Amino acid sequence: MTLPLAQVMGQQAAPASAPASATSTARPPANAPYRDASLPVDARVADLLARMTLEEKVGQIITLWDSKAEVQDADTTWNPAKASRKYPDGLGQIARPSDRSGPSSPRTNKLRSIPESVDYVNAVQTWATKNTRLGIPVLFHEEALHGLAARDATSFPQSIAMASTWDPDLIRDVNSVIAREVRARGVPFVLSPVVDVARDPRWGRIEETFGEDPYLVSEMGVAAVEGLQGKGGPGPLPPGKVFATLKHMTGHGQPESGTNVGPAPIAERTLREDFFPPFEAVVKRTGIEAVMASYNEIDGVPSHVNKWLLGDVLRGEWGFEGAVVSDYYAIDDLVKLHKIAVDLPDAARQALAAGVDSDLPNGAAYTTLVDSVRAGKVKEADIDAAVTRMLRIKFLAGLFENPFATMKATAVTNDAEAIALARRTADKSLVLLKNDGVLPLALPTAGAAARPTIAVIGPNAAVARLGGYYGIPPKTVSPLDGIKALVGDKATIVYNEGVKITENDDWWADEVKLADPAANRQRIAAAVEAARGADHILLFIGDTEQTSREGWADSHLGDRSDIDIVGEQEELLDALKALGKPVIVVLVNGRPPSYPGVVAKADAILETWYGGEQQGHAIADALFGRSNPGGKLPVTVARNVGQLPFFYNHKPTARRGYLFDDKAPLFPFGYGLSYTKFTIGAPRLSAPSIAAGQPVTVTVDVANSGARAGDEVVQVYVRDSISSVTRPVKELKGFRRVTLKPGETKAVAIILPPAAFQMWNGAMKRVIEPGDFEIMVGPNSAEVQSVKLVVTP
Q1: Which of these, 130, 670, 693, 757, has the minimum number of CB atoms within 10 Å of its CB?
Q2: Residue 158 confidence class, pLDDT cut points 50, 70, 90
Q3: Distance CA 206, CA 202 (A)
Q4: If you average pLDDT over residues 259-285, what whole number do you get?
């Protein structure tokens, strides 16, 4: 059982407040209460904390990553003697045991194999439990945004692609497999999911998010956490599960000028209406044990020292009792970037006072806290609170009973189930943006009189782009691989790169250099000759992992001032289009496809995002009609950078228009076509009027009048007709993805709970204001039918 943290802190206040010098430094007996698994977790935490010296406490809130070499042998195996000299009082966390030496590219720093990772974790835990006074195991964490970012793990589609499925059950399944693969290596803690609401495509990290809508991000975030941790509230970690970290709190997804780490000039009402909801939903609906603060500042206060954000809102209003961890180097950045701390000790004091419990990834700031306590600048009780939360995670993870990796990790990693799920997720994430009747292509048949020729052209055709925070799966399937595997010898496949986008595509590399235009024009000429005799041209263009990524330093940029396609890719399209043949554009990218020239010229456009290790098979299946694209955009696609920020749930006074330009988006939020035709009927309500605080059910008939089976996503939007403060023109409040056979009709019922009608009033209170509401239903945010609902007091 667990108790409220405030109660636990009250119980342990007396022993914890004793001076560190009064704590016994003898080894505790084998039957010490904290070793007794039959006791409540919080009682065990309190007993252990009372036995700890100040140095041992601070050791639990620091991390090792950059300086792994100091505690390893030359072959990167763990050296217990070096570790004891470096960390005589124990160590709280180790970041990314899958890598050998901290931050560097897997291309230059070979990642550990599965057996090597398991051996490393077990060696560390043997040291921690046998060679330190209290025997406190180490908490390992890994990155697992769309698969464990490690060698031989399954790589699923990037988050923005998973959001395009509009299928929370699928996202729950994906994260369940991720959890299994992570936990099998002895790691019980991951730094995912990202539930930032992203409203600026210039920001390179938009690919890591579930999109622009608070409700969609909330549902996907809850599903991801349930997949990682299991369903239910706070409690012991089930077998095969890992604790998740909710990140980044908050405002990170709409930084000033679209630049990573930039200020988030966001008013409190906007925070509460648009950026807080996913965090609140996960905190209140799941057993989330960790939240990561964001790099940015809000109204002059960086998130890592924001007592209102982390204290009043997160812990106070929402009742969060888990740990708040820093983003990597973010406490150091209070000195280097934000300029609100004079040195690391000052930064550590401010972050701790705001409620940040653990310093990632190297603990440089928090190692100074021992001296700060001795000097009377920090209360030991504040350190006790942080240590309590971090120890609680270790106890709940079962590390004191079994800290070792015991599962057969190779057997449960990238197995047939995981590979099939990666393919199915990629399949369901595909979004058909345009089709002038050229898709699906007819799958050639064996023995036909003439074999068709298919030209597969483009810089993203022969590579499986995985996106940021990627792992190294045992095998990837490029689009070219997938097409060849499906078509076989029934067609002639002609491949040409067409252009290069960047000189290299290493996400970790600091310098990003666009390919030489003159060399690209020579490549274009060669591509045209290769495609001249083709019946169909499949053009794979978009991004590399360098043209849209996390910009984590001045020397490692990833944001853009332009959202159009880079380099000579549109020139390649123009040259191929001049051949007079159908050109099908397949987008492989991490940011929304704001390519108006491409949209105007292509005969069909399929958005595939970064589709994971099995993307090639999924793309081929869709192009040749073996599957039917049913994904929907989780973002609004702007026409140009001048429209930004551009999101569908805007206020009534926005989007008036521009001189000499179109005010409409290139593609609206929720948009996606199909190879079949769906009809969504007029919405029906379970009651024309409800009292405030009651739910209402919205029902629509969805019919497939085409010749193919397919998926449609029914989307329900709400508009408060008259309100005391301005409200968005529409807000997503419900959705469901349904599969229909040809000629089939289904009645789809979606319940709108009372929360769907809530708002923050002028006094910043969450209320339901009685009056008329417009309930809108459609296949996307732009094409809706509506019905009036009256809400009475």
Answers
A1: 130
A2: very high
A3: 8
A4: 97
- Which of 508, 462, 472, 548 is CA-nearest to residue 207? 548
**pLDDT computed for residue 17 by the predictor:** 37
* Residue of 352, 346, 341, 343 lying closest to 310 (CA atoms): 352
Q: Which tokens sit at 441?
A: 């292509």
Run of H or E residues at 573: helix 569-577
- Cβ atoms 459, 540 nearer than 8 A: yes
Cα–Cα distance, 289 to 189 (Å, whole number) = 10
Buried b (16+ CB within 10 A) or exposed e, 102-137: bbeebeeeebbebebbbbbbbbbbebbbeebbbbbb
What's the rounded Cα separation, in Å, for the pair 432 and 678?
A: 14
Helix, strand or coil, per DSSP, at residue 250: coil
Query: What letter represents residue 282's amino acid?
Result: V
Strand partners for 143: none
Among residues 47, 152, 327, 559, the one annotated as catalytic is: 327
Mean pLDDT score, 403-415: 92
Task: Give residue for tokens 């005969």.
Answer: 603
**Is-catalytic flag, 481?**
no
Q: Are residues 567 and 514 in contact, defined by beta-carbon separation less than 8 angstroms?
A: yes
pLDDT above 90 covers a percentage of the chain that reads 93
Q: How many helices (H) and strands (E) in the chain?
A: 21, 26
What domains sit in the chain, N to C, each tagged with a CATH number? 67-329 (3.20.20.300), 430-643 (3.40.50.1700), 678-792 (2.60.40.10)
Residue 502: C-alpha distances to residues 240, 569, 640, 694 (Å)? 40, 11, 22, 55
Give 429's DSSP letter: H
Average pLDDT, the chain: 95
| pLDDT tens string 232-264 | 888 899 999 999 999 999 999 999 999 999 999
pLDDT at residue 15 is higher than 50? no
Helix, strand, coil percentages (3-state) for the chain, rounded to 5, are: 30, 20, 50
What mean pLDDT do residues 733-750 have? 98
Which pLDDT score, from 0 to 100, does residue 233 have?
83
Cα distance from N-terminal residue to C-terminal residue, the chain: 41
Please check whether residue 409 is in contact with residue 578, taking contact to mean a CB–CB distance below 8 angstroms: no
Crossing angle of helices 276-285 and 214-229, in 10° steps, is 30
pTM of the model as a whole: 0.95
